[in-house]
Amino acid sequence: MMAVKVGPLQSDSVASFRDVSVDFGPDRALSRVNWDWRWGESVLVVGPSGAGKSTLAMLATGLVPGSVEAQVLGQVVRDKRLSRPGAVGYVFQDADSQFCQIRAGEEVAFGLENTLVDSDRMDDAVRDALTTVGLAIDPHLEHSMLSGGTKQKLALACAMALKPDVLILDEPTANLDPASTHAVFSQVQDLLETGVTVMVIEHKYEALVDRIPWMVLLDRNGSIYRTGPTLKLLNQERDWMLSQGLIVPPRMRDRTRVSLGRPVLQLDDVAARYTRKAPDAIQNVSLAIHGGELVALVGANGAGKSTLLKVMAGLMSPSRGSLVGDSKGVAMGFQNPEHQFVFERVVDELANRYVGNERPDSVSDLLEEFRLGTEAEKSPYALSQGQKRRLSVAVMVQQDRSVYCLDEPTFGQDAATRETIMTRLAFRQEQGAAVIISTHDLDLVENWASRVIALDEGELVFDGSFQDLKQRPDVLARCRLIGGGAEGTVKSTKSRFAIPSDAVKNSAVGRLNPAFKLFSILVAAGFTAFAHRLSQAIPLAVLPIMLLIFFSGLTVGRVTKRLLPFVVFFAMYTWMMTAYAAVGPHTPVVHFLWYRLSYPGFMKGLVLGFRMLAAVAFGLLFVSTVDLVQLVKSLSRNFRVPPRFAYGTLAGLRFFPQFQEEWAKLRMARKVRGREVGWSLGRVVTYALPLLSDAVRLSERVAIAMEARGFVGEAALRSTGRTYYHPSSRGPRDLIFGIVVVGLTVLALWH
Amino acid sequence: MLNRIPLGPRPAAFLIGEVRAVQWKMRDIVLTAIFSALSGAIYLGWDFLFKAVPVANPVAAAAFNGLWWIAGGIVPYVIRRPGAALLAESIGGFVEFALGSPYGIQAFTIGIAQGLGIEMGFMLGRYRRYSPLWVMFSCALGGIGNYVYSYFYYGVNQYTAAIQLGYIVVTMLSGAVLAGLLSWLIARALGRTGVLNNFQGGRDIQPRGSA
To answer: What share of chain A has pLDDT > 70, as a percent?
Structure first.
């Protein structure tokens, strides 16, 4: 029996659970939970992967059931205060997928719009929120340009702007380097002092044990094992935490006995870049890798670690310098394990061929070792994130190579899984291969690496043992391996979305309301169908070109450059008409090869060509003078498109540039497996799988994040149920533009 | 149940008899946008590929047409909501247009026409029929949308009757295969991975290893 209640107006508990279980389809996420979460009790939730930590948070705050469908048994009572939109602030693991706008200011304002904050007050509210989390950035900056730590602070600002009573942080630092993690945690401590009740879910909880007073321990089955004061529980429950794989016994590993084998990779003054015009992602890298080494590559996000691994694996060729490798070749494991999956079942993936029902012993052993036995028949994509990573490592280490390159092989894994993966890699190392991994995890480096290479801005800044690295605070700070250093807020200066220049924005066409402009241009372009003579079609093409040149702030050169390529295209249409148009019985026809060419056909073709030029020019007039966010908002505001559809579409379109990057990575990853597996027509479908399954999961995350930020009820359903950050740009000029453009089009057809 | 989004007026709500199908969820909308934007990129590539292939016979060229409305096949199949084909094709066409299609703003408007055609198919199935054959049938109707639009805008009305007939038949077949069958194949492969479990369309597909 499910019962979710909203409690009395004032209660002591944020939420209380009586015998609550949560099922997602056949999978039980939480099992018989009894717990009172009191106001003012900030808690740290700790448990192994898959213990239901996120489910607990979503259940407490009302995202389950609702935004996320689930069967809930037992009784949950939530304080009525939580029903206020914005009462719950949420920060998720993946900074990118909780955003749904394009620029930082809009992002903060999204929540304000949902909670009906007055448009005039929004600018101040946005600035206040950014100040609250210590972010001094221009609100007009695209958030895709921000560094990882800054993005999470922005997410915090979005949550804090709504003045929440409860703040949930669901692994907010999983993607961050140690310095950014430190910065986010200090921010959390400051927020605690404002009186908000916080729940933090963290794998790397060590840094928080002094800051968060209460703790909830969840076990593998999704039951609450114990709750209580953080430090007390940590002291008393060491054995339990060991049994759950949350911590591992300290290991004494003698790294000095590593005997260097023969050199397997030699890099000499290597530089590499992604495109011909791009700056070098790594440069001046000279090093030799020997068999028997386990090398850890460390450095800030974007320091060039992944690039260096790709160069070593032979996937990217150096733009300068030389690279000499061993004939046995290099195995490469990518950051996103899905990119490398090529089979429909886990067993086939491990065997690297289709094995049917006959499972080779070697595969059974691997399944056992990597704890994937129960998943053998499943699709690799259906696994949990941790299982996927174990699978991709398992696939890779069974290949017999002299070098193994792995990009963050232990990312997001609990301690026990980290141990499994590293043990396997160390085994290869002992057999004489070289293992090179990139990581942010310094404990892992200390415990396993025989050598550390630190990169900063593409250059090698340290190469030596971990003991020596510890003596170099300058390198540690520079590579963001310790907290305290100043963090650059901006990671890239390249914006993902074309933003109209000021000249364009302030031009006559640029200032128009986007939705009305779209409407006027669509009507005008629609009329082009009625042009049947050249004397009608030519002015129709000239009209938008004139508007482009004189009223849109673009230069003649730019307009020409954008339109010229299409001329070839129109020539083709002209040819189609010349050769295939229906002509009267007495029309002279020229026979050429098997074509019947006619003069009337040629004229019709020209008309069609000019009509298409008009369509392209009208299109360019719109695209080059409009801002996507403004368009979406004005569609909702002025044309009454339900905000769910308008904002939901924007949230989806926002990811388009990201998928272009994913596509490039996927192609590279497939190069590694593709050589081994071969190519067939059926692969076309499986090739689409990594991208599409990514897209599906992203849609779910984005949708949950939007609803968590108050995008529910009237604010999402009705354009009048919310306020808008941008001032309304609607005015008489929109009507005038419509009349002029449509009028001139009709006039061109009339004469 | 708490926090259930109340039903409100929605586009196309009047078209169907069943409440179940009406309720677009937030994730349906975001998925539509992402899938359609990716399709828009494919459309653009197709625009140029189509230009590069030296096919100058309109009937032969029509065989390529179907891929231009694949978003209208795969999105409705996955999310199963009224209006899905129309929305998907509008977004797909818009992205194709915004990325610099040689068809200009007509890439957007023809997308709407194709989407309307496909939508007719799913509407005839009362938004309850999503078998592979029905998806192919609906996507073939997308070809009618394409034909009507091309009739007025791309000079198809100028062709001889025989060529026009050939054009529409080949276009519909192309739609059934390149938009319909391909959508179904991809969606089924996707469904078997289990990632579609939270979507209406994923519930029909048995994920691997779950038996």
So the answer is: 92
A678 pLDDT higher than 70 = no
Strand partners, A615: none
> Options 3.40.50.1820, 3.40.50.300, 2.50.20.10, 3.30.70.20; which CATH number does A255-478 get?
3.40.50.300
Cα–Cα distance list, A465 to A304, A433, A442, B161, B162 (Å)? 20, 19, 12, 80, 79
Question: Which residue, among A694, A686, A651, A652, has the nearest Cα to A670 in the 3D structure?
Answer: A686
ipTM above 0.90, yes or no: no
CB-CB under 8 Å, B1 with A616: no
Element containing residue A434 per DSSP (H, E): strand A434-438
Structure tokens at A331: 């195995």
Residue A639 and residue B135: Cα distance in Å, rounded? 31
Closest to A89 in 3D by CA, of A214, A216, A215, A196: A196
**Highest-confidence segment of A18-27, A564-573, A715-724:** A715-724
Query: What's the pTM value of the predicted model, to 2 decimals?
Result: 0.87
The answer to whether the peptide bond before residue A26 is cis (omega within 30 degrees of 0) is no
Are B197 and A25 in contact, with CB atoms under 8 Å apart?
yes
Judging contacts by C-beta atoms under 8 Å, the chain B residues touching residue A618 are 104-105
Contacts 24+ apart (CB under 8 A), A242-248: A244/A47, A244/A48, A244/A219, A244/A220, A245/A48, A245/A414, A245/A415, A245/A416, A245/A417, A246/A46, A246/A47, A246/A48, A246/A414, A246/A415, A247/A415, A248/A415, A248/A416, A248/A418, A248/A419
Two tokens, residue A245: 């794989």
Q: How confident is the prediction for chain A on average, in pLDDT?
A: 86
Q: Is the pLDDT of residue A607 over 80?
A: yes
Helices (H), A247-329: 305-312
| A546 touching chain B per CB within 8 A | no
Q: Chain A closest CA to B86's CA: distance in Å?
A: 13
- pLDDT (0 to 100) of residue A270: 92
Rg (CA), chain A: 30
**Span A341-352, mean pLDDT?**
85
Q: Do A344 and B87 touch (CB under 8 A)?
A: no
H/E segment holding residue A199: strand A197-201
Rounded to a whole number, what is the distance in Å from the CA of B126 to chain A's nearest CA?
Answer: 22
- What is the predicted pLDDT for the residue at B13? 37
Between positions 123 and 162 of B, the ones with CB within 8 A of A are 152-155, 158-161
A vs B: CB pairs below 8 A: 237
For A48, the token pair is 């192994």
Domain ranges of chain A: 255-478, 502-631+734-750
A75 pairs with which residues across the strands?
Answer: A3, A18
Distance CA A332, CA A310 (A): 8
Contact assignment for B3 to A573 by CB distance below 8 Å? no
**What pLDDT band is residue B4 in, cutting at 50, 70 and 90?**
very low
CATH code of the region B23-204: 1.10.1760
User: pLDDT tens digits for B95-139?
Assistant: 999 998 888 899 999 999 999 999 999 999 999 999 999 999 999
So where are chain B's domains? 23-204
Task: Among A90, A576, A741, pick the best mutation site for testing chain B contact (most B Cβ within 10 A).
Answer: A576
Which pLDDT score, from 0 to 100, does residue A686 have?
A: 65
Of B3, B30, B38, the CB nearest to A702: B30
- Residue A623 pairs in a beta bridge with none
Pair A529, A612: CB distance under 8 Å: no
Q: B10-27: per-residue pLDDT in tens?
A: 443 333 334 444 689 999
